[in-house]
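Re: that backbone. Tokens:
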């Protein structure tokens, strides 16, 4: 018991004596654990908001949109695997009017009693009430985007141009479709009489199917199409909706996971280096403990316990920080905290990494002989090649001595160099992610966003809308377009087909492989669609559009950030006449320097608010949350590099305690001694920074493109940081390392000769 008490006292005293180093190690571990837990939270299927919404609302696995069928529920209920039917619900398209802003809306007719299947979850207000015939329930993400609140009034315009005033009775969540604005139009549940007033002639309806086995959703869609034929307008399964809700989370989660895993490796190296430096610096104390009766095993366990305690403190702080950030930053997208199994795996793996990193230095400390005086001189040997070169070119003595001392202890030098290079590599990769986001923002045409505005005819004719758009001096090109859902072969579900421009005058889709379509019947596809249908460039596919069969030849691959890349793009003339004439909208490409907001205002004024003019959402806007995450991760990596650098400086100063007096007696000034100590650490930092920067620049675009391929967006989006940024980052890192090494070096250089010799 006395030995245990003595061990605890020694651990407490040692931690107090090096509070800064222990605190830095705990911060490093906390940052890594935070990144890993947040990554696992965002990547875990249980945190996908769709999952919780689907379970609470008893959601439907399949949604069938039909046109012209009075009541498809009877035929659909007889299909195998169907256990319950929601609907059919009559739907009507409308336009929400908010000044100059117009938003597409789908009104869905519902009863005054919430349904048993696919029941909207009321978050604010109440459900539909017969006493309030104009009261409607608005889907929450749509309400947030359009700033609708309970009790508020808003006008909607039907397809006949008549405006109707509605009141927000409630706001609800649903698993029926993805979040707005990624999934448009917005969803509003309304009484059947209200839907009939807005669109008296609508023949559209939607029916939800609850299945016995969710894995049979695609097969059920195929059977529904067979039974209902061309009356099926489009169909969605639970898998597609789940993917829509989790896309941005997964991108951010993978980025955090990459930084977290690499950061854990770098942190292990930093802890191993720090533990080794601590053992070298406290050999006298360990020898005294051995002389007092401590065994090798007790000394080893004591060192392991000390660093494991620091690691546990960092793990606890990381868990707490990750939970707070998850609740505050991702409150709208993360439904539940991380489950117990991955949480234990992350915390246990981090502690195990700390223990393994400490094991070898602790074992070496346990082998310290129990002598009253232990040699502490650094190992001797021949000059390194770098030091020989420094002598041959007759560099100043301080630089020669620094070049020699940098590699005196080769194993710590290698650990320091590698431990600094890994964070620098990840920092460069983070800058590559930043540059990619800047490319999305500054060059939206590279990700399919050449058009800044989308114009829909509204109450005007299609020809009048085109004339007004072409008359604006800031509009460079006007492309007719239509978005339709098509059934793809072998999948039994619909995917988005974007028909914009014509075969002879195509919209400038960003084709990165193959070529742009140039003839009737040619198309380009996103990586996600090519993976889905297992086709390659040059293959022909047969798709069903509105009951008509169309044969298309895929001639190119595009960068497609929408719908997991499951998008087919073609000329509007490749569609059947009933699907393309008149165009649903016009995509406007503006002249360089034109302000989309000003052009939009002029178009609305020219049409007397008859047009529906919307700004195209840049994909970079949805990923802006990545920027503060990158900054935080760079800070954590900088802490890891700082921990490594402080250890290297401490080892260098310990090795030079006896040499300082000799160097001063030989005539070296304090500045020369400081330069010797700084050069020894700075050379390792220089090698690490250059190596890490080059490796990060080479890997950044490749890793981003790899993520693009796996997410369906497609390769070709990765950007390498520009040379100015790379040089600036490298110089900043070198300046930081120099300043870090300079402070203890100057303090050591001011020591008196006698004190230095006695030490």
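Recovered sequence:
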């Amino acid at each position: 018991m006395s030995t245990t008490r003595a061990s605890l006292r020694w651990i407490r005293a040692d931690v107090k004596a090096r509070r800064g180093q222990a605190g830095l190690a705990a911060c490093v571990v906390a940052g890594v654990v935070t990144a890993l837990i947040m990554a696992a939270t965002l990547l875990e299927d249980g945190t996908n908001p769709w999952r919780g919404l689907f379970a609470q609302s008893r959601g439907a696995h399949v949604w069938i949109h039909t046109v012209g069928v009075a009541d498809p529920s009877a035929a659909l209920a007889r299909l195998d695997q169907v256990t319950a039917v929601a609907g059919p619900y009559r739907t009507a398209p409308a336009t929400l009017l908010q000044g100059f802003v117009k938003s597409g809306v789908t009104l869905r007719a519902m009863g005054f009693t919430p349904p048993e299947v696919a029941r909207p979850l009321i978050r604010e207000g109440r459900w539909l009430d017969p006493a309030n015939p104009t009261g409607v329930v608005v889907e929450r993400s749509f309400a947030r985007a359009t700033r609708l609140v309970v009790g508020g009034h808003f006008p909607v315009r039907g397809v006949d141009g008549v405006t109707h005033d509605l009141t927000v009775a409630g706001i609800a969540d649903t698993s029926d479709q993805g979040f707005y604005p990624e999934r448009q139009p917005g969803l509003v549940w309304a009484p059947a009489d209200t839907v009939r007033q807005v669109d008296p002639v609508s023949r559209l309806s939607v029916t939800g199917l609850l299945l016995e086995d969710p894995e049979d959703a695609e097969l059920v869609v195929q059977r529904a199409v067979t039974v209902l034929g061309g009356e099926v307008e489009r169909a969605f399964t639970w898998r597609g909706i789940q993917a829509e809700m989790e896309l941005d989370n997964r991108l951010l989660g993978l980025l955090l996971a990459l930084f977290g895993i690499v950061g854990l490796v770098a942190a292990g190296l930093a802890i191993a280096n720090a533990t080794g430096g601590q053992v070298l610096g406290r050999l006298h104390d360990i020898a005294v403990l051995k002389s007092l009766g401590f065994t090798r095993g007790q000394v080893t366990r004591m060192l392991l316990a000390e660093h494991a305690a620091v690691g546990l403190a960092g793990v606890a702080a990381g868990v707490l920080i990750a939970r707070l950030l998850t609740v505050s930053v991702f409150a709208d997208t993360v439904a539940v905290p991380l489950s117990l199994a991955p949480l234990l795996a992350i915390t246990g793996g981090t502690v195990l990494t700390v223990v393994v990193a400490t094991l070898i230095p602790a074992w070496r400390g346990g082998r310290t002989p129990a002598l009253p005086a232990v040699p502490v001189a650094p190992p001797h040997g021949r000059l390194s090649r770098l030091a020989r070169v420094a002598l041959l070119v007759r560099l100043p003595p301080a630089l020669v001595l620094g070049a020699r001392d940098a590699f005196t202890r080769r194993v710590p030098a290698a650990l320091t160099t590698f431990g600094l290079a890994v964070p620098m590599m990840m920092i460069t990769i983070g800058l590559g992610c930043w540059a990619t986001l800047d490319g999305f923002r500054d060059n939206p045409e590279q990700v399919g966003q050449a058009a800044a505005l989308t114009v829909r005819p509204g109450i005007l004719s299609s020809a009048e809308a085109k004339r007004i758009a072409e008359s604006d001096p800031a509009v460079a090109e006007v492309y007719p377009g239509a978005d339709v859902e098509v059934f793809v072969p072998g999948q039994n579900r619909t995917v988005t087909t974007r028909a914009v421009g014509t075969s002879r005058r195509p919209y400038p889709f960003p084709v990165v492989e193959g070529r742009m379509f140039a003839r009737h019947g040619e198309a380009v596809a996103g990586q996600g669609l090519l993976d889905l249908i297992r086709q390659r460039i040059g293959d022909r596919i047969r798709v069903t559009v509105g009951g008509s069969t169309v044969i298309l030849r895929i001639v190119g691959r595009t960068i497609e950030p929408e719908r997991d890349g499951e998008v087919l793009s073609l000329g509007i003339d490749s569609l059947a006449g009933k699907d393309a004439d008149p165009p649903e909208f016009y995509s406007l490409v503006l002249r360089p320097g034109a302000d989309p907001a000003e052009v939009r205002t002029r178009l609305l004024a020219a049409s007397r608010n008859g047009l529906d003019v919307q700004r195209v959402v840049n994909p970079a806007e949805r990923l802006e949350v990545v920027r503060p995450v990158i900054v935080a991760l760079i800070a954590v990596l900088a802490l890891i590099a700082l921990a490594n650098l402080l250890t290297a400086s401490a080892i260098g100063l310990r090795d030079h305690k006896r040499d300082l007096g000799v160097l001063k007696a030989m005539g070296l000034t304090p500045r020369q001694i400081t330069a010797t100590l700084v050069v020894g650490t700075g050379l390792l930092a220089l090698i690490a920074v250059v190596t890490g920067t080059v490796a990060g620049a080479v890997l950044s675009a490749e890793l981003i493109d790899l993520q693009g391929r796996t997410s369906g967006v497609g390769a070709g989006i990765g950007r390498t940081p520009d040379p100015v940024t790379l040089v600036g980052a490298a110089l900043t890192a070198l300046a930081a390392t120099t300043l870090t090494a300079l402070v203890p070096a100057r303090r050591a250089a001011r020591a008196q000769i006698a004190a230095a010799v006695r030490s």
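The longest strand covers residues 82-98. Residues 379-445+622-759 form one domain.
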